[in-house]
Amino acid sequence: MSRYVLIFLTVFVFNSSIFAEDSLEQLVRNTAALKLNLFGDQLLEPEDAFEFSASVKNGNTLYVSWEIAPNYYLYREKVKLELVNAAGTKLGDYSIPNGEPKHDESFGDVEVLSEDLNFNVPLIREDHGAQTIKLRAYFQGCAERGVCYPPMNKEVLLDLPVAQQLIASPEQTSTQTPGVLVPLIILLIFSVIVLILSAIMAIRLKKSA
Questions:
Q1: Confidence label for 152 from pLDDT (cuts 50, 70 and 90)
Q2: Torsions phi, psi for 75 (to 5 deg)
Q3: Which of 24, 155, 200, 203 has its C-alpha lying 20 to 30 A from 114's C-alpha?
Q4: Where are the domains of the chain?
């Protein structure tokens, strides 16, 4: 009986060692696969990582937007807009929202924008008629894992409606005010002179009578 017990123990130990080796090998394989999934994912294409769009808000204003993928960000300092061959129309001063401060190995202390970026862009139009313009956007961004994209740009065609006349600025109003007041002042002085002369003539007529 002891011989059967010895054989059983030998087979059990042998099978246990095989099972342990298989389990260890499977664990290593699973760990490698997990590492590949975590760090080996392919980067998104630029247009998917930073989806740019633009629209016409009204005849004097554009609206621009970037949809930024999770774990990606744009450099605020690298965002720039321009009009291409737009005669009689140019961009006014626009304000890019502030981002999060970040120390970048390539650009030093910068501001980065994540999730989304959008803002209005005013237009200065000499030609108030309907027209089509081409807007070009420049931008650059990175993935959080430390991989950065080269500078990129995208162009969008936009149809502008007839522009409304803008209300005159305070500076324009102040420069136009003297031109309006001068004739009024002259008319007032003339009226006073006429009244004085009329009064003098009335006094003389009364004395002569």
A1: very high
A2: -85, 125
A3: 155
A4: 1-41, 46-160
Nearest residue to 148 (alpha-carbon basis) of 139, 156, 157: 139
pLDDT at 170 over 70: no
CATH 2.102.10.10 for domain 46-160, yes or no, is no
Report d(CA 181, CA 24) in Å as an integer. 96
pLDDT digit string, tens, across residues 20-47: 444 444 433 433 333 333 445 789 999 9
Contact (CB, 8 A) for 119 and 94? yes
Lowest mean pLDDT among 61-75, 103-117, 154-168: 154-168
Compute the mean pLDDT over every residue in the chain, rounded to the nearest whole number. 78
Q: Is the pLDDT of residue 102 over 70?
A: yes
Q: What is the pLDDT of residue 183?
A: 67
Closest CA to 77 of 149, 147, 139: 139
Looking up tokens 């030998």 gives 10
Greatest alpha-carbon pair distance for the chain in Å reads 168
